[in-house]
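Section 5: illustrative case.
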């Protein structure tokens, strides 16, 4: 990897926040993800993918609990032949001796070509990226979740899921998308909200109890981008107009004084009884893990896309890695297998 720091600011290098993505980049990532999935249907295609980055190494620095994101990144690396090392607990690193996280990350950068990090503190991925941008060993940083602030790769796989679900209906443009649950602290809906500026005639419906309403930074961003939104506590009244509903759990890991237990969330759950109120071609999404926000019987409805959404995560993260290492053209211009 080149060690020069003289790169244009808009180059696809670090993946830190969803604000860095524009429509052409989003459309390109979706196209790339679909191409990768076609290769992966055949042994020969998988072997081709595995050969692309066999000379690269990745550090998965996941000190915040994670199942889906960790496994999808780990498997995305394996699909491309990338060797991985991991830290799942900061107490197993020299941070326990008092070393700063940034010093630890700079140490990791001596051994790997990309660092994927998930932390409970907001802004650490951006701080690491700024540090590496000043060094001779400039390693890409991928933000795999930072506090309650951002989860950009989740938002990218959500966009891909929506685009594929709406592929026979003109894509995301012109759709009404509901977001329900803990919108205040849910980094998945926050990140997805920022991406809506890239789509035409989209309307957002925020469904949440007052204590967990979407915060002003997202709403202010939507107003600046002329994206209409409404807020409500009445899920039933808005279900018939939604083309998609994105449901999130209560983020009580961010509680300070057990405030989540004081909020009545019983009206913010989707059950079988609600399905008849929804459009026949609506989309039901959830970033997982879920608790009781969606009744398990809803899983059998063809509109439930959250397990497909989860699988899409690995393929989108393969696409992100190929884009970072500038080998995406090898996939897009190769002869696809029948």
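Designed sequence:
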């Amino acid at each position: 990897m080149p060690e020069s720091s003289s790169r244009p600011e808009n180059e696809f290098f670090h993946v830190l926040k969803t604000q860095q993505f524009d429509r052409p980049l989003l459309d390109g990532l979706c196209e790339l993800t679909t191409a990768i999935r076609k290769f992966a249907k055949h042994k020969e295609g998988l072997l081709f993918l595995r050969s692309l980055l066999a000379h690269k190494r990745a550090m998965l620095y996941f000190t915040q609990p994670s199942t889906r994101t960790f496994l999808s990144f780990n498997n995305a690396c394996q699909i491309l032949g990338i060797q991985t090392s991991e830290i799942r607990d900061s107490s197993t690193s020299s941070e326990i001796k008092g070393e700063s996280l940034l010093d630890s990350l700079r140490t990791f950068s001596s051994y790997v070509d990309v660092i994927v990090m998930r932390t409970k503190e907001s802004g650490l991925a951006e701080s690491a990226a700024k540090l590496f941008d000043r060094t001779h060993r400039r390693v890409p940083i991928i933000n795999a979740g930072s506090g309650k602030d951002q989860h950009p790769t989740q938002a990218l796989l959500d966009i891909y899921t929506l685009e594929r679900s709406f592929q026979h209906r003109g894509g995301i443009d012109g759709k009404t998308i509901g977001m329900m649950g803990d919108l205040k602290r849910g980094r998945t809906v926050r990140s997805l909200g920022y991406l809506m500026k890239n789509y035409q005639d989209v309307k957002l419906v925020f469904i949440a109890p007052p204590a967990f309403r979407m915060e002003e930074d997202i709403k202010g961003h939507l107003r600046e981008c002329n994206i209409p939104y409404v807020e409500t506590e009445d899920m039933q009244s808005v279900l018939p107009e939604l083309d998609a509903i994105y449901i999130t759990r209560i983020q009580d890991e961010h509680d300070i004084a057990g405030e989540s237990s004081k909020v009545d969330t019983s009206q913010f759950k989707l059950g079988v009884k609600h399905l008849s109120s929804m459009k026949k071609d609506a989309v039901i999404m959830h970033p997982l893990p879920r608790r009781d926000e969606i009744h398990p019987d809803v899983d059998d409805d063809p509109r439930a896309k959250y397990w497909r959404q989860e699988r899409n995560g690995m393929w989108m993260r393969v696409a992100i890695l190929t884009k970072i290492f500038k080998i995406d053209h090898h996939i897009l211009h190769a002869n696809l297998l029948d």
